[in-house]
Specification:
This protein folds into two domains: 140 residues, Rossmann fold, CATH 3.40.50.300; 40 residues, no CATH class. Helix content is 34%, strand content 28%. The protein has six helices and ten strands; from the N terminus they run βααβαβααβββαββββ. Strand 7 and strand 8 form a beta hairpin. The longest helix is centred in the middle third of the chain and has 22 residues.
Length: 189
């Protein structure tokens, strides 16, 4: 629909991408689902090193074709698998910083929006008066690499809530939405 006018790259670290979900979303907007799917390139990463190498290959592809969006879902998952325990935390954070630096370079070099998902972990130090003591995984390295951070949570019934957690040019705020077969929709009153 002449939005980004380019392709989407999706790097999947958890095996959750479902191309069949794209079809009803494309149909909702009157688009040819096959054409939409043809503009999405997909890769499944199995280790943090594989994830990094996929980014290197993707940069070469971006030099040949116009891409407008790069999605990494989830950026931290493989680091949490490949590095375990406090003894490997420093190395994990260093390798994560390198990955995030590569993502920033791709964003700037190819004028691509980068959307990364993260995981949350329990925050036992969050205090006993906090009803949902969770915090983003990845620590300060990941927090400082992102320009805008959003926190998603389940709302009432089928509702979902997206909170602006940190953004340089936006105040804190929330938006309530629903996930439907046709994609994201405003909440029905």
């Amino acid at each position: 629909m002449h939005g980004g006018n380019g392709k989407v790259a999706y790097i999947d670290t958890e095996g959750t991408f479902r191309p069949e979900r794209i079809v009803p979303i494309a149909e909702r907007f009157g688009m040819d689902a096959n054409a939409v799917l043809d503009n999405i390139i997909y890769a499944r990463a199995y280790t943090y090193e594989h994830q990094y190498n996929l980014l290197l290959g993707l940069a070469a592809k971006m030099a040949e074709e116009p891409f407008r969006l790069l999605i990494v879902d989830s950026v931290i998952a493989l680091f949490r698998v490949d590095f375990s325990g406090r003894g490997e935390l420093a190395e994990r954070q260093q390798k994560l910083a390198q990955m995030l630096s590569r993502l920033t370079k791709i964003a700037e070099e190819f004028n691509v929006a980068v959307y990364i998902t993260n995981q949350v972990i329990a925050d036992p130090g969050g205090g006993m008066f906090i009803t949902d003591p969770k915090k983003p995984a990845g620590g300060h390295v990941l927090a400082h690499a992102a320009t805008i951070r959003l926190m998603l949570r389940k709302g009432k019934g089928e509702q979902r809530v997206c909170k602006i957690f940190d953004a340089p040019n936006l105040p804190e705020g929330e938006a309530v939405f629903q996930i439907t077969t046709g994609g994201l929709m405003d909440v029905k009153d």
